[in-house]
Design goal:
Blueprint lengths: L2 H12 L3 H24 L9 H7 L5
Length: 62
């Protein structure tokens, strides 16, 4: 069974709305782009700072 037949059978069997595929594709695209950017920069965002640090140090928003 080819990939095309598999998709065709799934669409017939479950009557999946094509908008669902678009929505899933957008979510997968966003996640993939985020992972790609993290790998390309070779580092994750810093987790050292928290809003609690500002509270305890007495900083105010400028």
């Amino acid at each position: 069974m080819t990939f095309r037949e598999l998709i065709h059978n799934a669409l017939e069997k479950w009557r999946v709305v094509p908008m669902a595929f678009v929505f899933i594709a957008i979510i997968v695209g966003i996640v993939s782009l985020t992972i790609f950017k993290i790998i390309r920069k070779k580092k994750l965002p810093s987790k050292n700072f928290t809003p609690f640090d500002d509270i305890t140090e007495g900083r105010t928003e400028e």
